[in-house]
Write a structure and sequence with these properties.
Layout lengths: L19 E9 L10 E6 L5 E6 L3 E10 L2 E12 L15 E6 L5 E5 L4 E5 L6 E5 L13 E6 L5 E5 L9 E7 L2 E8 L6 E7 L5 E9 L2 E10 L6 E7 L8 E8 L5 E7 L10 E8 L1
Antiparallel strand pairs: 1-20, 2-3, 3-4, 4-5, 6-7, 7-8, 8-9, 10-11, 11-12, 12-13, 14-15, 15-16, 16-17, 18-19, 19-20
Protein name: Phytase-like domain-containing protein
Organism: Sulfitobacter donghicola DSW-25 = KCTC 12864 = JCM 14565
InterPro entries: 6-blade_b-propeller_TolB-like (IPR011042), Phytase-like_dom (IPR027372), UCP031900 (IPR014567)
């Protein structure tokens, strides 16, 4: 079990020498289907050839990722279904705004929802949701500013970060769900206008956080990596983009292939708007 402690990750600089990211391309995913778009969460398989994604209209899709030379060349949908209730039937509109996706090593999947803020266990085979996990802080969240960053660590503990910032420059609480209760396990420093929209743990149990900022010139994205250790916390800024470098990146998956090479895959939410694209953006981690 991990040690949960109330700590503040505080470093003298948000950028440190060391690890970096190398671009592995940006693939534009297009499909002529009424449910296509709005992708907010993503999980990749260890070989990089399977992905599971969820949309903010309650769609769950599993797909094969085709590659050439390691880069994505195509996506073939295996199955697509609407998220539903445990007893059957679709979720109602305001209850279907799925934002965060986390799948543990044992295959257990969780989805976080906005508007009707909650986290649900989710069967990725059937799309049915069950086992609601309430959020003790849900009454403080705006309709469109809930938990988008959802992740599971090596011990199977579920972590959540709300998109809505606290007052001023207060850090973002990192909540851990353990023993049926939520606790604040750490606090993520707020640096600039960015807010957390995606999260994942790598094979070394380091927390990766995808953040977004909206500007008049377009979206900006930032990735930070944290070692959550009360005795020696670490923070590295891995990527910061200029406006409009990518579209509205919201989902993050960190995975390692059979050779141990670590990859970062992100997906964008086009908000079902023609002026935005669905992009699958990948980077290779250079340690």
């Amino acid at each position: 079990m991990i040690r949960l402690a109330l700590i503040l990750i505080c470093l003298c600089s948000s950028v440190q020498a060391g690890p970096s990211l190398k671009s592995n391309g940006a693939f534009r995913w297009e499909l002529d289907a009424p449910w296509f778009g709005g992708w907010s969460g993503i999980e990749m398989s260890g070989d990089g050839q399977q992905m599971t994604v969820i949309s903010d209209r309650g769609q769950l899709v599993r797909a094969v990722v085709n590659r050439s030379g390691g880069r994505i060349t195509g996506v073939a949908v295996q199955d697509s279904k609407r998220l539903g209730r445990a007893s059957g039937g679709r979720l109602r509109k305001k209850a279907s705004d799925a934002e965060g996706l986390a799948i543990g090593q044992n295959g257990q999947a969780y989805v976080s929802f906005e508007h009707r803020h909650r986290i649900m266990q989710t069967n990725t085979q059937t799309g049915r949701t069950s086992g609601k996990i309430g959020l003790p802080f849900e009454n403080t969240l705006g309709d469109n500013a809930g938990v988008e960053a959802l992740a599971i660590d090596a011990s199977g503990t579920l972590f959540a970060i709300a998109e809505q910032p606290l007052a001023g420059d207060a850090p973002f609480p990192l909540y851990a769900f353990q023993g049926g209760k939520w606790r604040v396990s750490a606090r993520i420093p707020k640096r600039g206008p960015f807010v957390p929209v995606g999260a994942d743990f790598d094979r070394f149990n380091r927390l990766w956080v995808l953040e977004r900022a909206t500007t008049p010139l377009g979206f900006r994205s930032r990735i930070r990596r944290f070692v959550i250790d009360p005795s020696a916390p670490q923070e590295h800024t891995m990527l910061t983009t200029i406006p409009a470098r990518y579209d509205n990146l919201e989902g993050l998956s960190v995975w390692s292939d059979q050779r141990g090479q670590m990859h970062v895959t992100m997906i964008s939410d086009d908000n079902f708007m023609r002026i935005l694209r669905t992009q699958i953006v990948e980077y290779i981690v250079k340690e």
